[in-house]
Amino acid sequence: MKQFIEHSFVCMSGSTAAGDVEAVYFKIAKGIIPFLALLFVMAWLDRYNLGFAKLQMAKDLGFSETVYGFGAGIVYFGYMLFEIPSNLLLERIGARKTFARITILWGISSIATMFVKTAAWFYVLRFLLGSFEAGLFPGVVFYLTYWFPARRRALMQALFTTSIPLSIILGAPISGWIMGSLGGGAGLANWQWLFLLEGIPSIVVGLSALVIVADKPSQARWLSEREKQLVLADLDADHVNAGPRTHGFREAMRHPGVWLLTVIYFCATSSTVTIGFWIPSIIQSLGVNSNITIGLLSTVPYIGAMIGMVLVGRHSDRTLERRYHAALGYLVSAIGLVGIGVFANSPALAFTALVIAVTAPLSGHQAFWQMPTMLLAGTAAATGIALINSIGNLSGWLGPSVVGWLEDLTGKTSTGLYVVAGLEVLAAALILFFMPHRSVSTGETPPNCET
C-alpha cells in the first residue's frame, strides 16, 4: 500500500514551497491511509462474505433467494438510522474512539451470524451488522477533510477505497478455501467457520484503532511542529478558497443539493452493493463449480477496480473535474450489468462484462464523493455526507431484494441486474442534467504532469 501511495504522488509537487507541503501530505497519506483501508477491508469482508456463505448456508437453512436477498440488504436500514448520529459523534469525540467502536461491534455481530437458525434471526443480525458498521465510510470521507485539501481528496478517497477491491482480492480466495476445506470441522458447517474466522480480525483491528488513529494533524505524534504548521496553514487557505458553504445541521438537512446527491447516490451505488452479493453465484452460473476456483475468479473484477479507482481519482484531481468522471463511470457500469445477462451463454464475454460492472461504478464514486464538500463544511459536511451515504445505501437493500425476488420469479439473475442497470443510467442523467458546472476552488491551476 505504501509503495502504491508513493507512485500516486510522483507527479504532484511543483515549486519548492508547494513541494514542501506536498511532501507532508505524502507523509500523512502513508501514515493514515493504509490503516483506514484496513478498517474498510474488514468491513467489506464481513459484509460481503455472505455471498460465499450463501453457496451452502441457504441450502442448510432452507432460505429462498428472496430471504437471502432481503437479509443481504437489510444492513442498509441500520445504515440509514445510525450513520448521521455516528458522524456527528465523530465530530464531537474524534475518529479514534469512533472507528474503534464501529469495528469491534460489527466484528461481534459478524461472528454471531454463525449461530443463525431462522430467517428472523438472520434479519436481526444483518440489521445489527449494518447498525454497528454505520458511520465508517462517511466517517472516513469526513475525516479526510481534516487532513487533505480539496485538490487532493479524490486521490486520497481512491487510495482509501482500494480497500474494497483489496478485500475481495485477499478475502475471496480465503473465503473460497474456508468454504471448500473446513466444513464439518469441530461440528461446524463451512459457512459457520467463515463467519467465525473472518469476524475475529475485525475485533483485533478495532482495538488497534485506539492506539494508531490520530484525530487531527495537530495530534499526530509522527508529524513535526513545522509539518503541522504547513498543513494547517494550507488547509486554512483551502477553506477560504472554497468560498461560502453551508455549515449548520439544519441547513444541511434543508439543502436541495444534498437531497439531489442522495438520490444520485441511491441509484449509483445500487450496482456496487448488489453485484458484491451475487459475484460468487454469477461465476457459478458460468459453469464454475469449485468453491476455491470461484474465490480466485472473484478477485479478477476487483483487481481491475483497484486500478480504475486510482486512475480516475488522480485524473479527477489533476483536472479538478467531478461531474463527467462520476457520470461516465455509472453509464459504463450499466453497460456491464446488461452484458452479464446478454452474454450469459458466452462465459468469457459474460465474465468481461462482470469486470466492467464492478470496475466502473467504484471508479466513478471517487469523483462523486468530492461533490458534497463543494457545498458543505463543518457540521453540515458531517451531516450531509452521512445523510447521502445512509439513505443512498438503501439501494443496498432494494437491489439485492429485487434481484433475489426476480430470480425466484424468473429463474434468472440477469433480470434483476437489468433493473439495477436502469438505476445507474438514471444516476448519470441526474448528474449531467442537474448538478451545476462547478470546478474545485483551490486558488491554483490544476497540476500539469504527464501520466
Describe this structure in words.
- The protein is mainly alpha-helical and 451 residues long.
- It contains 22 helices and no strands.
- The protein starts with a helix and ends in a 17-residue tail after the last helix.
Outline of the structure:
The protein has 22 helices and no strands. It has 451 residues and is an all-alpha fold.
Secondary-structure element series: HHHHHHHHHHHHHHHHHHHHHH
Oligomeric description of these chains? single chain
Shape: globular
Overall mean pLDDT: 86
Number of strands: 0
Strand fraction equals under 5%
Q: Characterize the largest beta sheet: strand count, sense, and whether it forms a barrel.
A: none
Give unreliable regions as ranges. Answer: 10-16, 439-451
C-alpha end-to-end distance:
20 Å
Structural class: mainly alpha
State the share of residues found in helices, binned by percent: over 70%
Rg over C-alpha atoms, rounded to the nearest angstrom = 21 Å
Counting DSSP H or I runs of 4 or more residues, the number of helices is 22
List its traits:
single chain, 451 residues, mainly alpha, disordered C terminus
Helix-strand blueprint:
Layout: H1 2-8, H2 16-48, H3 50-61, H4 65-73, H5 75-93, H6 95-112, H7 119-133, H8 136-144, H9 150-161, H10 163-181, H11 190-212, H12 225-241, H13 249-254, H14 256-285, H15 291-297, H16 300-319, H17 323-342, H18 347-368, H19 372-375, H20 378-392, H21 395-410, H22 413-434
Helix pairs in contact: 2-6, 2-9, 2-10, 2-11, 2-12, 3-10, 3-11, 3-14, 4-7, 4-21, 5-6, 5-7, 5-8, 5-20, 6-7, 6-8, 6-11, 8-20, 9-16, 9-18, 10-11, 10-15, 10-16, 14-18, 14-20, 14-21, 14-22, 16-18, 17-18, 17-22, 21-22
